[in-house]
Amino acid sequence: MRTALNRHLTTVRNLGILAHVDAGKTTVTERILYATGTTHRRGEVHDGTTVTDFDPQERDRGITIFAAAVSCAWDGHRINLIDTPGHVDFADEVERSLRVLDGAVAVFDAVAGVEPQSESVWRQADRHGVPRIAFVNKLDRAGADLDTAVASIRDRLHPAPLVVQLPIGAEDGFTGVVDLVRLRALIWADGAETAVAQPVPPDLREEARRRRRLLEESVAELHPQALEEFCTAGALSERTLAAALRDLTRTGDGVVVLCGSAYRNRGIEPLLDAVVAYLPSPLDVPPVRGTGGEERPADPRAPLAALAFKVSATPTGRLTYVRLYSGTIEKGDTVWEAGARRTERIGRILRVRADRHAPVDRAVAGDIVAVVGLKSAHAGSTLCAPDAPLVLEPPSTAEPVVSVAVEARTSADTDRLATALARLTEEDPSLVVRTDPETGQTVLSGMGELHLEVAVEKIRRGHGLDVQVGRPRVTYRETVVRGVTGHVHRHVKQDGGAGQFAHVVLDVEPLEAGFEFRSTVVGGRVPQEYVRAVEAGCRDALAEGPLGGHPVTGVRVTLTDGATHVKDSSEMAFRTAGRAGLHGALRVSGMALLEPVVEVTVTVPEDAVGGVLGDLAARRGRVTGSVTRAGAAVVTATVPLAELFGYATRLRSRTQGRGTFTARPTGYAPAPAGR
């Protein structure tokens, strides 16, 4: 029985499709579904007929906004696939998806190569240790070049690219690929649904042999067993080469590169073969580890360990998407929700295909499914066996950088708006709702202007609410530029009964980023438990700085001295002293205001470059690079986020609708005086 279960796990692939916006990621997903027989017609992004971009806003805007899970089968393997967003505003959707995936396909535009957001998602995958293969898409476009795209992958992402295909034809004449591992040609005739395997065309044989040799040499440099065979025999067998490519992909030492044109349905079958051959199964990844150090193997018979990574409210109920790392769940089972410390009942289990679902009786380790019936679970919740609890590390959530005030147009809709916002933040943890203490307004914060636009439109469409939205505002920070030494604060309180006493001496100095606390107190003048309380109080004080009540970053605090009272000192007293002491120290320190900045990549016709550069300068932008690529100019600049509101409309008007731009956060920079 165990052998049969393990055999099932070896045929599962959990992977994501990652890319910069408009690299063809959703089209790749659609062609995968078509090639595997999951769909019977090819969905098109421009027609609004895709399976994974099923939300009305996704179809209206022509971009992926919400990560969509689909299941399909290929060559006896089950592929659980997540099509992730490519726009930077929805990077948290990518983060939550990568947390539960075993592998990924990174899609690159054959003309543009590595673009800003493809670099960002690649770094996200690096952090999670997710093995990848690369698919260079759009080889049928004018200016497409596989070698140039591979060079940008090598130069900007720094992996060892292992190119296993050679294109046959270029641009409009792209008709197939040479498989360098098996030394055969795969040709897609016009209108053909599948490739026809043929001998390598005579005019490409010499080039194919040369590239196969380069591939063998690259693999031998990275793989000890392959190197041994290469030195002995002077070449690598097909079997050894394939095994080495699999090993290098799974360790991350190499990245297999394939190519094609998803729109023309060319290159998808070899991509699926590579997914099966090179990307890991749940058995090939290390056992999942709880925050307490507990390990759970990918074994259906082990105690349950599952992570909820997405919550979605549908007309038929609340869906919780979960990845099972170990154990088994069946309809009607009771599970332990570790975060809420309560039991939950599994109502139904659904195999997911975007917005359509097929009920199943059970799910086992390695599966990604949706569950109906969980009431308190949210993105990041751990589901486990009641008699074997553990907590899995939840996906990280980035801090929001843009805020808008939202309010219902009528007082009668105020409660409905509060309910809608609560549901919105439940589905998307990167959205934050708070009440402004000064104005009493409800403030919605997110990752960017588009992120907030989508959220507000979802309230309008999904809940039928007419809401008013204020102008977007960015989230500023405050930092220390000149510190203070020996700042003394005494907290003394006597109001009957036990009093409060705490005496602290603090040094404050600038730090490049973040917050650091240390203590140099000697002689036990402040006991260790009180030192921890002082640190907690200092962290409390970071919430509001002296310039405008913005969060404080870039500060190091040192507790240098202090005193206690034999009766009146307590952790609460020292926490209060730490908070008030740091507040006072910051008021006498030199402080500066920081504003969020983004790296903007603008692609425009060459004749519009002058106007675009002038507009960026007017927005306090600092140009960092400019290149010409395929007849268009690509300008890179660092711009304050606050200056980018409305930029899309301005750019379109300056370029007669031909200009596009993307932006990704790069941190904070000093804001000019008067901000």
TrEMBL record:
Example GO biological process: ribosome disassembly
Tell me where in or outside the cell this protein is found.
Cytoplasm
Q: Where is the Tr-type G domain?
A: 10-283
| Keyword list, A-Z | Cytoplasm, Elongation factor, GTP-binding, Nucleotide-binding, Protein biosynthesis
Q: Which Gene3D superfamilies match?
A: 3.30.230.10, 3.30.70.240, Elongation Factor G (Translational Gtpase), domain 3, P-loop containing nucleotide triphosphate hydrolases, Translation factors
Tagged with keyword Glycoprotein: no
Q: Which InterPro entries match?
A: EFG_II, EFG_III, EFG_III/V, EFG_IV, EFG_V, EFG_V-like, EFTu-like_2, G_TR_CS
Q: Which residues bind GTP?
A: 19-26, 83-87, 137-140
GO annotation, cellular component aspect:
cytoplasm
Q: What is its main location?
A: cytoplasm
Query: Membrane spanning segments where?
Result: none
Q: Name one GO molecular function term.
A: translation elongation factor activity
Role description: Catalyzes the GTP-dependent ribosomal translocation step during translation elongation. During this step, the ribosome changes from the pre-translocational (PRE) to the post-translocational (POST) state as the newly formed A-site-bound peptidyl-tRNA and P-site-bound deacylated tRNA move to the P and E sites, respectively. Catalyzes the coordinated movement of the two tRNA molecules, the mRNA and conformational changes in the ribosome.
- Name the HAMAP family for this protein: EF_G_EF_2_B
| Family statement | Belongs to the TRAFAC class translation factor GTPase superfamily. Classic translation factor GTPase family. EF-G/EF-2 subfamily.
User: Per its record, how is this protein called by name?
Assistant: Elongation factor G
State the organism named in the record.
Streptomyces chromofuscus
**Which taxonomic lineage does the organism of this UniProt entry have?**
Bacteria, Bacillati, Actinomycetota, Actinomycetes, Kitasatosporales
